[in-house]
Amino acid sequence: MPKLKLASRLEYIEPFRVMALLARAKELEAKGHDIIHMEIGEPDFPTPPDIVQAGIAALLQGKTVYTPALGIPELRAAIAHFYAHHYKVVVDPAQVVITPGASGALQLALSAILSPGDEVILSNPTYPCNRHFIHMFEGVPRLVEVGPAQRFQLTAALTREHWSSRTRAVMVASPANPTGTLIDPDELAQIGDWCLMHNAALLVDEIYQGLIYDQPDQTVLARQPNAFVINSFSKYFQMTGWRLGWLIAPLDAIPAIEKLAMNAFLSPSAPAQYAALAAFSDTTLALLESRRQCFRERRDFLLAMLTELGFDIPAQPQGAFYIYANASHLTDNAEQFAIRLLESANVAITPGLDFGGTAASQYLRFAYTTSIERMREAGARIKTFIKS
Amino acid sequence: MPKLKLASRLEYIEPFRVMALLARAKELEAKGHDIIHMEIGEPDFPTPPDIVQAGIAALLQGKTVYTPALGIPELRAAIAHFYAHHYKVVVDPAQVVITPGASGALQLALSAILSPGDEVILSNPTYPCNRHFIHMFEGVPRLVEVGPAQRFQLTAALTREHWSSRTRAVMVASPANPTGTLIDPDELAQIGDWCLMHNAALLVDEIYQGLIYDQPDQTVLARQPNAFVINSFSKYFQMTGWRLGWLIAPLDAIPAIEKLAMNAFLSPSAPAQYAALAAFSDTTLALLESRRQCFRERRDFLLAMLTELGFDIPAQPQGAFYIYANASHLTDNAEQFAIRLLESANVAITPGLDFGGTAASQYLRFAYTTSIERMREAGARIKTFIKS
Questions:
Q1: Which of A220, A297, B219, B223 lies 20 to 30 Å from A287 when distance is taken between CA atoms?
Q2: Which CATH architecture has domain B50-279?
Q3: What is the CATH code of the structural domain delimited by A64-281?
Q4: What is the distance between the alpha carbons of residues A194 and A188, in angstroms, rounded to a whole number?
Q5: Helices (H) and strands (E) in chain B, counts
Q6: Beta carbons of B9 and A268 less than 8 Å apart
Q7: Chain A stretch 9-38, residues whose beta carbon is closer than 8 A to a beta carbon of chain B
Q8: Rounded distance between C-alpha atoms, residue B149 and residue B157, angstroms
Q9: What's the CA gap between A314 and A302, in Å, rounded?
Q10: What are phi and psi of B99, to 5 degrees?
Q11: Cα first-last separation, chain B
Q12: Is residue A100 a contact partner of residue A269, using CB atoms and an 8 Å limit?
């Protein structure tokens, strides 16, 4: 029987390597091994209790029916208010689109912008879904190599250099996954001006917004009100499994985005939306602030630990919950290092190859989504592993 | 300032007309009007209590984190078991993909199958999202006019007639929206054989499965085990706002679908998945059976009522919760009829133009997602409206 021919885009879309590693980690765990998880891009804190209670109340009240495609007006207004109050930035509630996770926001923004063959400039390394979503809508990711010299972020000069007549958008993430670095606000503003001048879109992934440790929290919207901003309740608000995010888009793009949203999703999860209304309460924000402090302590601890173990961290991670470490003093194949570390020391981390870039095979991503105590134990195990 | 150029696919993707009508209905409601809603494709029954309780338990137990991209193994197994028990059809749990609504299932299936320019044969009229999703992934919907003579369903002969060298898939919905008709199982099997012979995919939308009133419930998988089946917890299980569906796909397509799912969604909603585990309990299934009986009574009532009012229903609706009525004896513009009916009689229905087809401007879709009492009142209002 002939085999069904699958879509051409599948050639360009890769599975995450960390998934095979995660499956193996679970296998080992099932056999009784004590695995230390530093591979997972997910906070280890539970969803704040007020949000959970609001979710339960929604279920009890039968708020389990379709909502408007762009989300419930109360939540769109609450997010706009959060920008006004927290960032002193004016966002019209009509610009706020509630989505099934940041994934949904990325999908809406890219499917609204990209025609087949259109190019998007983005950094390499980057979060892999970004380039995969571009392929999904038949766009062409124009990957720009960045390294420690650029703190793994795009610059205005690099953007201009890689611009073509087909460039329709620039994508930036700040704080970034896997590096935890922030883009320089002046560079970002210059990139935004360039996009505006060339009738292209600036997309900024701010899903780690709030998880930033050395300076005040920020948003690109403060200087680039026309940017498309992708955000999420997953990371800072610790609602991963609820699948809820949002997109801020220029007002004149909203009718197109609404068309796409009603066709692609019908509506975001109703209980998740009602739960998220409790995300901006004073109690919840105070709890999240204490958790942010905890992440900061973990970053400081892990940074010192990895340096002492012989890893090189060429760009100070300032946000998210990742450290992107160069392992070339310890191995010439970081992926094999990760696999062997899991097998013999039961410490799970993510190979740099998931994120791309020419030096990816030298890099490893450590997530500090576990306690300092567990990270200390991981350090001891890694030390023994390196010596063996 | 130059306006951002949006994606070319937006020219082919339309908003639902009923949305404007729904917005107007809500406006009138806010002003104190008593609107009878027969436009909404959503059960008026709340989510069954056991499912709600399972959702609450999941929230209390912190089951609010990412799940595997294809869904939690327990739910994949429960769905496979449901097919075995209820339809006597063998489905490997590995074929079951849990998705964010049937929308997510449609998206995965089409993005896995369609390369740009690939054609999909589907009936006209059809649920509009179907053709829009095809455009989203740069495929070409090949709309085949069907009418009362075909009970608004594709036939094997029509499929062969519209086949081209670029045809990659055939899409069928049974029970169908907006007509409520079923496809003849022999025709469907012939279409499936033809697809198999031509190395193309058969996609069957079974999201109204279970809501069928004149004959035993069925699935295409009984005769076409290679079909892609789109299904949902929204309609029969009355979980619309939870946004949970599933896709059954041939085993050899699953790795591709998993790649797409992990990139497009990361994972379906965790609490919704744990809640859905209670969907197959005896208590819940008994409750759903009583609600199905209720839908059947409503269909019979509405069918008689509309016929008496002068509408023509040329194909007996056998499932879902819609009646597709020809209004040409009453008006020469069904959309205007719907708008005026809402304004002056406060009865909301959906214009056929949302679903396409050459005769669409003569048709109206009535949803029996409200009580017989309310439908009787709607009938009285429509009678007065027609006479005026």
A1: A220
A2: 3-Layer(aba) Sandwich (3.40)
A3: 3.40.640.10
A4: 10
A5: 12, 12
A6: no
A7: 9-10, 13-16, 19
A8: 13
A9: 14
A10: -135, 160
A11: 51
A12: yes
State which H helix or E strand residue A229 sits in.
strand A228-232
In 3D space, the residue among A202, A162, A164, A163 whose CA is nearest the CA of residue A185 turns out to be A202
Q: From CA A72, how far away is CA A373, in angstroms rounded?
A: 41
Tens digits of residue pLDDT in A296-348: 999 999 999 999 999 999 999 999 999 999 999 999 999 999 999 999 999 99
State the pTM of this model.
0.96
Interface test with A, best of B3, B4, B273 (most A CBs within 10 A): B4
pLDDT tens string A245-300: 999 999 999 999 999 999 999 999 999 999 999 999 999 999 999 999 999 999 99
In A, residues 64-83, which contact B (CB 8 Å cutoff)? 64-67, 69
- Six-digit token string for A151: 């703190």
Return the H-helix or E-strand segment holding A366: strand A363-367
> B231 forms bridges with which residues in the sheet?
B246
The pLDDT value recorded for residue A384 is 97
Q: Which residues pair with B367 in a beta bridge?
A: B322
- ipTM (interface pTM): 0.96
What count of other Cβ atoms lies within 10 Å of the Cβ of residue A314?
Answer: 15
Give the max Cα distance, chain A: 62
Search chain B and give the residue with CA nearest A195.
Answer: B4
Location of each CATH 3.40.640.10 domain in chain B? 50-279
CATH topology of domain B8-46+284-387: Aspartate Aminotransferase, domain 1 (3.90.1150)
Among partner residues A13, A199, A200, which is closest to B263 by beta-carbon distance? A13
Residues 6+ apart with CB under 8 A from B222: B87, B88, B89
The pairing of beta strand A167-173 with beta strand A140-145: unpaired
Tokens of B331: 């008006």
Q: Where in chain A is the domain with CATH 3.40.640.10?
A: 64-281
Strand residues in chain B grouped as ranges (E): 36-37, 96-99, 119-124, 140-145, 167-173, 201-205, 228-232, 245-248, 322-326, 347-348, 350-351, 363-367
Chain region(s) in chain B for CATH 3.90.1150.10: 8-46+284-387
Per-chain mean pLDDT for chain A: 96
Return the structure tokens found at A27: 């296998």
Is residue A230 within 8 Å of A41, Cβ to Cβ? no
Other C-beta atoms closer than 10 Å to the C-beta of A11 total 9
How many other β-carbons are positioned within 10 Å of the β-carbon of residue A358?
A: 10
Amino acid at A382: I
Interface test with A, best of B198, B263, B354 (most A CBs within 10 A): B263
Six-digit token string for B115 = 């390369």
Q: How far apart are CA B336 and CA B361, in angstroms?
A: 9
* Half-sphere exposure in the Cβ direction for B286 (13 Å, CA): 4
Among candidates B15, B129, B241 on the partner chain, residue whose Cβ is nearest the Cβ of A64 = B241
Structural tokens at position B194: 């033809």
